[in-house]
Amino acid sequence: MSSLDRVPGDHNIYIGGMFSLRRKDAFQKANITHVLSVLRMGLDRELFDPFHHMQIEVDDVEDENLLVHWPSTNKFIQEGLDGGGGVFVHCAMGKSRSAATVIAFLLQKHRIMPQEALDLLRQARPICEPNEGFMHQLQLFHEMNTPDDVESSPVYQRWMYMREVEMSRACGQAPDADKIRFEDEHTQSIDKARFEMKCRKCRRPLATSQFLEQHSKSTLEDKKIEKTGNPSLADCAHYFVDPLSWMRHELEQGKVEGRLECPKCRTNVGKYAWQGMQCSCGTWVVPGISLSRSRIDEVKARATAPGLGIRRPPGLQDSQTERNATIAVKLNL
């Protein structure tokens, strides 16, 4: 397709396919000064004279990491607009890669939802349809508040970790030790924990509710409330949790699956399988890192963070403000 479609709004942004580059008259009429190419292809540089040109070499496949490029593409688009000119964003057909990139700019500029931005874009170019992988990345970009540095975002880091797990699983291997993300080392505060899980034999705290994997359709709030007053996954035989630092010795051995022992009394408290495992509720969880409900006691979390038994980030000290926040959370249980 050779059409040059203007994105609705008060910004001078256009979207199209690569054949639109031949329409020099349309470019001149639209006062286009910047061209952003979002495709992996050798391009004739003469096509881009006298424009400012940027190329992002990506394929239109669902596992392509386009998210990491959006801070730089957003900056390029904004520079073109600030200069008083127009910006043309294209891929091969003006359908998926370019559409996702324009949507990423709209998310940052207008603080709207990905679907809202896509609906807006389709008013000008109905064929716009980012692939499912790009739409998921747009949702992540929105959740992390469209930062200028996505790589430092915990949301991005966790997404990359899950990609590593999936790649390892596809190869029938465990993730490399340096790729495993231990969530309690990346969480800035544990004050939101509503309950903790302790070894039934020695009472050593093993995890808190904030590290639970919500693996079923029902949320914790929708589940049966037991006598402790805490929501519980009553239909499941296991608690599925994130990798935690006390599991490091076992998880970094490179085994695809194995058992988890309480670090204090060495009782078998769970198991793991990087390729995933099926819960008793029928849900398949990847990766499967589980604590057995028959070996765990669920109790209300203590008011002060150190009592939760999860290692606090270095340098994070108690303060009166922190203690007050903890009490407030406890009262809302």
Automatic annotation (TrEMBL):
Gene3D superfamilies: Protein tyrosine phosphatase superfamily. Its EC number is 3.1.3.48. It is an enzyme of class 3 (hydrolase). Residues 5-147 form the Tyrosine-protein phosphatase domain. InterPro entries: Dual-sp_phosphatase_cat-dom (IPR000340), DUSP12 (IPR016278), Prot-tyrosine_phosphatase-like (IPR029021), Tyr_Pase_AS (IPR016130), Tyr_Pase_dom (IPR000387), TYR_PHOSPHATASE_DUAL_dom (IPR020422). Keywords: Hydrolase, Protein phosphatase. Pfam families: DSPc. It comes from the Eukaryota. One of its GO terms (molecular function) is protein tyrosine/serine/threonine phosphatase activity. The keyword Hydrolase applies. The active site is at C91 (phosphocysteine intermediate). PANTHER family: DUAL SPECIFICITY PROTEIN PHOSPHATASE 12 (PTHR45848:SF4), DUAL SPECIFICITY PROTEIN PHOSPHATASE 12 FAMILY MEMBER (PTHR45848). Belongs to the protein-tyrosine phosphatase family. Non-receptor class dual specificity subfamily. This is protein-tyrosine-phosphatase. The lineage of its organism: Eukaryota, Fungi, Dikarya, Ascomycota, Pezizomycotina.
